[in-house]
Predict the structure.
Amino acid sequence: MIAVPDERWLGRAEGPVVRPYALTGGRTRASGESVDLLALVHATGNPLADTAFLEPEHAGVLRLCRTPKSLADLASDLDLPLGVVRILLSDMRERGLISIQRPSANPLTDARILKDVADALRRL
Amino acid sequence: MPFVDSDHDSGPATPMSIKILIAGGFGAGKTTLVSSVSEIKPLRTEEVLSEPSILVDAIDGVENKSTTTVAMDFGRITVRDDLVIYLFGTPGQHRFWFMWDELSFGALGAVVMADTRRLADSFPSVDYFERCDLPFVVAVNCFDGARRYRPEAVRAALDLDPGVPVVLCDARQRSSSRDVLVILVEHAIKLLTDDKRAVTSR
């Protein structure tokens, strides 16, 4: 058993997590490629997409990502665990409701971009 | 798949995102730093603990799998339309190491918050970032009433490489936290240009 928490540990007092996993049909892992924390999710607006399965949480995803949103932002805004949102997203991608873009090719190898970041931070 | 792009005509469709980790022991000021420079939101992750990820709890087989929820601090600084900086406060407990791999993947670098009253709490973070070769700086959070140490003393106590910046900060101050991030980015630039020089001189 896991011991009493000492740091931001959400224990029994945080309530059940049954509902999120009911949404995922009990799955705890998404199928297919794992979605990066910073991958951008965008509603396709595809009118032919299969919407029959939509739960309020799916609708929430669609509403939030009319403009591209990162997975981390979505999970935080929906107040759902990352793992649950990953599963929702993979289902929705399969049905053509959203597209998921990987984060742009690693900008960290370009010193000019990093200098931009430093300058931008200095102006904060 | 066609990409329907109706709502955001201005600016490029994919903003660049930069990820920075804020690590350190419990109470060292991670949350304070994230909230002083960015809009902070909680982010929950629900993880199935499986064998390789267990360092503390022994779990024998699938039938014993358990899930654990971890809450992280998550901050976002929108620098420009096309540039967003994300800050992730890494969960401090050792049993969450497995999450660090995902968090550090593709990260620009990390800030290790250190509290001089409990300096040993920052050892695991320092070790981790040294091992995975991620640029990091040590930010000594100067708490009221805590004895001030010189950065050199902290460097010696943490046995840091000479190149790793050690800065004193007050995480409650936006400008001070911002300066820590600037020093981290400058450090990452230096490592990058040093690397390139090393490659061309070979």
